[in-house]
Amino acid sequence: MGSKKKRKEIAGIDQEDLVDPKLLADPDSYFCEFKGVHIHHKIHDAESQTQSIFQNQTHVSNQINKLCLPMILLHGFGASVFSWKKVMKPLAEATCSKVLAFDRPAFGLTSRVNLSSETGDTKPLNAYSMAFSVLATLHFFDLLKAEKAILVGHSAGALVAVNTYFEAPERVAAIILIAPAIFAPLTTPKIVKENQSKQDNQMKEDNSSIRKNPIVGLYKLLSKITKNIAMAITGMMKQMTDMLNSLYRKLLSTILRSSLAIMLLRMAIDKFGTAAVRNSWYDPNQVSEHVLSGYTKPLRIKDWDKALVEYTAAMILDEESNTKPSLSKRLNEISCPVLIVTGDSDRLVPSWNAERLSKVIPGASLEVIKQCGHLPHEEKVEEFIAIVENFLRMFAGNSNKQYLQPAM
């Protein structure tokens, strides 16, 4: 008899019998269809909690309950609804409302979309793009029948939260960013404003000099003509650059979606997948097998690898970044309450970046949890919930403000 062929595994997950994501659903899982994608989500409702829970609420918690605003939780890269498992029920109690978490395309149990199979004259919205994630988030506002909601984004999910705010600021009551993977600008808006003020003063001085000395005026005129010529040349160069950039993007897109890229991704997940989860905690030894199995469960789904490659390609080749202002330059435009929570020992997104963000976003509150890594909501559940409750308590008394009025 011949020897039995060894089955292929990635991060300990058998790759021979991959299945449809719905077959891996939990008893409390839900699926809804949005733009052809079956999105996996879970909901915890404060109204469904036992009466004893409400009898034990303190006066402070009763103040929090006045908010009665739903929460939508947005997971980070490589995570899923599973990462919110420990905090969904406490958050529902804190907000006295529904808390919903969903898996974005390429993650968790949401269906994997084969973009190459899509046909038609009109180009459909890329299910793995930021634009899709934003619209999906707003779809869940409607599913909850909520005019307003609180967005909670972890790591890459923080990007979705902030982009959703800019898409529909009137619907976002508050934002909670956990270890946000958002690049904080090196200069604050105040510094930029001061530099602009100096430029304005310099312009006024230049105009005064021209009136006093005609030679200076002639020099300025020649300088302006030279500048216009330089701008024209720059414009031509930009057109050539855009053309080359388009060719570069097409080439990069082909490479990212190649069989080689998929093979390299599978190798990386196999070698570093579980190690990355452990490294996200302050103490890697505290990561249980249950946690690891929750993170590796999606590796049992058909086309999980192709979906991750498509997500990566969409992230790198983000076409909207060419038409919209940089997110880091718009952070100072956020006007709703913002809480930023980070771990002091985050190895993936350092806490100093969160500190910078708190200085750029007007009125943002910053909380740093000690001896905590990249996953405060998993590693330090009680401290995380206490911080969120305190944040909600701060604004419960300001219910007269428009952004905290519950939907009727």
From TrEMBL:
GO terms for cellular component: chloroplast envelope. One of its GO terms (molecular function) is catalytic activity. InterPro entries: AB_hydrolase_1 (IPR000073), AB_hydrolase_fold (IPR029058), Epox_hydrolase-like (IPR000639). It holds the Pfam family Abhydrolase_6. SUPFAM superfamilies: alpha/beta-Hydrolases. Residues 72-386 form the AB hydrolase-1 domain. PANTHER family: ALPHA_BETA-HYDROLASES SUPERFAMILY PROTEIN, HYDROLASE. This is Uncharacterized protein LOC101499394 isoform X2. It comes from Cicer arietinum. The lineage of its organism: Eukaryota, Viridiplantae, Streptophyta, Embryophyta, Tracheophyta.
